[in-house]
Amino acid sequence: MPIPDADWSDFQAFLAIARSGQLARAARRLGVNPTTMGRRLRRLEAALGTTLFEQTRTGQVLTEAGEALLAAVEQMDRAASGITGSGEGEDGLTGTLRIGTPEGFATDFLSPRLAQFQSLHPGLAIDLVSAPGEALSPGRREADVAIVLARPRKGPLVAHKLADYALGLYASADYLAAHGVPRAPADLLEGHRLVGYIPDRLHAPELRYLDEIHPALKASLRAPSITAQHSLIANGAGVGVLPAFMAHADPRLVPVLSDVRLERAFWFVTHEDIRRLPRIRAFRQWLDETVRAGEEVLMPRGARAAPENARKKELPS
């Protein structure tokens, strides 16, 4: 895309909106009011004769023209940073790193460790965005990097496998004492309550756990959030599938049918245009090292057995 003869502050406004995903948030980062930010964006769009963002429920998303401009403006920004000395450097990262990640990985694995990375780069602001549903997309510039459950098959993205992780069936000791310990997947069809996802809120086929265990299994207590499911299971609501890195840290939970083991993978994804930025490279290296150090947490070799009083309890007839 040809670059128009426009004020550099207009390009900075465009870049801030593209990186933050919201005009108001971008205005705060640049220290101007949203009205000024909007005026700069409209001025740049008028100079280009095209629309750079689409307004969505959650903020601004780049149009195809915006994507084309962003690659050029990021290159200009890196060149300007090198001249002024105000940009990223390996010895002192600055700016913002936005990480989109699944809720369970963010809450139980990444959050307890992320302060270590920030302490290595105190000049870097980190946005950790996690919620039930699909992770923010680097392809749509909603995040700088994303941790996802499957390798993207299209788009200008670069991905590498971050780690495998294990999942299993879990319940609370109190639930097993009251309902009995199932000996086979078919035992879960009668006398047991299953906790799982709401079918029409599944955002990835990798989350269809129960079908893999037994084709007739259906959850009767459902939530779109793995954190909510964890709480339900730990508080005795039923039996459900959880990642081992969540369940093994909770003393209220014990494995059910410990020979039933599911495996999934996390993938690290970023946009190809920013893959070589120092903040992206630094986070990728740190996260690779962190998951290697936490391999036993993600893929544990052993499991706690169901308590003796639960094992002796017979299944309801």
TrEMBL record:
InterPro entries: LysR-type_TF_proteobact-type, LysR_HTH_N, LysR_subst-bd, WH-like_DNA-bd_sf, WH_DNA-bd_sf. Keywords: DNA-binding, Transcription, Transcription regulation. PROSITE patterns: HTH_LYSR (PS50931). It comes from the Bacteria. It comes from Novosphingobium mangrovi (ex Hu et al. 2023). This is LysR family transcriptional regulator. Belongs to the LysR transcriptional regulatory family. SUPFAM superfamilies: Periplasmic binding protein-like II, Winged helix' DNA-binding domain. Signal peptide: none annotated. The keyword DNA-binding applies.
